[in-house]
Amino acid sequence: MKCRFCKTELEHVFVDLINSPASNSFLTGEQLNEPETFFPLKVYTCHKCFLVQVDEYKKSDAIFDSSYVYFSSFSSSWLQHAKNYTEMMTKRFGYTDKSLVIEIASNDGYLLQYFKQNNIPVLGIEPTANTAAAAKEKGVDSVIDFFGVSLAEKLVAKGTKADLLLGNNVLAHVPDILDFVGGMKVILKEDGVITMEFPHLMQLVDNNQFDTIYHEHFSYLSFYTVKQIFESKGLQMFDVEEIPTHGGSLRIFAKHAEDASKEISPNVEALLGKEKSKGLDTLAYYDNFQQKALKVKLDFTDFLIAQKKGGKKVAAYGAAAKGNTLLNYCGIKHDLIDFVVDANPNKQNKFLPASHIPVVDETKIKSEKPDFVVIFPWNIKEEVIQKLAYIKDWGGKFVIAIPDLQII
After folding, report:
1. Most exposed of 53, 77, 272, 327 (fewest Cβ within 10 Å)?
2. Contact at 8 Å (CB) between 20 and 325?
3. 223 membership: H or E segment, kind and range
4. Is residue 154 part of a domain?
5. Per-residue pLDDT tens digits for 115-165
6. pTM for this structure?
7. E strands in 94-170
8. What is the distance between the alpha carbons of residues 182 and 193, in angstroms, rounded to a whole number?
C-alpha cells in the first residue's frame, strides 16, 4: 500500500484492530442467518508526510449508498454546533442573499438549513440519496454525487462557484483526498473561503480514541499534514481553530494561494508549533498505540464479564460507528450487552454488525431498567447523561470505555 497523499510505500503499522464489518452495515433480522463480510482494519503511518491511513478495503460507493443510516439531525448538540457556525461565519465574512454557500457531504440539511433561514443561497453535495431526500424536505437542494475535480468542473461550467465551501467530517472520508482537495480549488470563487472540520489526530492519539477508526474514515489528520495536502493543490491555510466536537476536532480556514485579501492568522503557526512540540512529525509519537487500545479491550471485556457473572443487566446508548469498532475489536456479542438504544428510526429494529446486538428505541430502557448503560458516542456523553438521567431512579449507572473505563 502506498500513501494516498505522497505515494510513499507504507511500512509502519499504527494500530491493527483486526477484522471488522463496515461500521454502519446494520443488519435486518433475516440477515442474521447470512454470512457477513469482514474487512481488515489495519492502519498505517506514512513516515514521510505522517498521514495516518487505512486502505480502501471497502469501496466508498459501497459505504455511502442509498441505505446509509447516519442522519446528522438526530443530535441536538450537533444541530446547535451547526447553527453557531452559520452565525459566526455570516458575521465574520458578511454573507448575503448574493452569496452562495456550498456544503460537501451536506447529509440531511442539518447545517445549510440555517443559512437558508437567513436568505443566503445554499447548495448541498451529498452522495447518499436518502439523506439528500431529507434535506430536500428542509428546502435544501442537493446534488447527489461524490465530490471531486470532475463534479466541480461540471458545476463551474453551469456557473456555480462558492463564496463559502464547507465540509464537516468529510475530509477523512474520501479515499482520493488529492482529487477531493483539487475539486475544492476548482469550485471556489477567487476570494472565497473554505472551512473543513475533522477529528484531530493529536486528540485521537493522546486520548486513546481508537474507536474512531473505521472503514468510512480513510485518513486520520493532523494540521501538519492537511496543510501540505492543501498547498499541493494551490490552497493556503489562513486560520485554524481547535474545537471540542467529536472528542477534539480542527476547523481549518483555507483560501486560494493567490488571494492576498486575507491575512494569515497567528493561529496557523501556533498550532503547527504545538503539533511539532508533541512530535507529530516523528514516528516515535505513533508508537505504542496498539498497547493503549489493548488495555481498553481488556478492561472493558473484564467489566462486562463481571456484570454477567453478577447477574447484572447491561444495555448501551447510541448505535454509533465508534461503538461498532469498540465492540468488534473487543469481540463482544449480544450475550454481554442486551440491547442498544438509538434515537434514529433508520437504525431501530435492526442489529449491529458482527455483535448482533438489537437496536431499539428508548422505551426499552424504561421497561428493562438496566443496571448499566454504556455510552458509545462518548463525544456527546453530557447530552446522553442528561437525556437518560432517570436511570438513577433505579440505581442505574453510565459506563464509558474511552479513553479508559469510567463508571458514572
Report:
1. 77
2. yes
3. helix 223-231
4. yes
5. 999 999 999 999 988 888 999 999 899 999 999 999 999 999 999 999 999
6. 0.90
7. 101-104, 122-125, 142-143, 162-168
8. 15
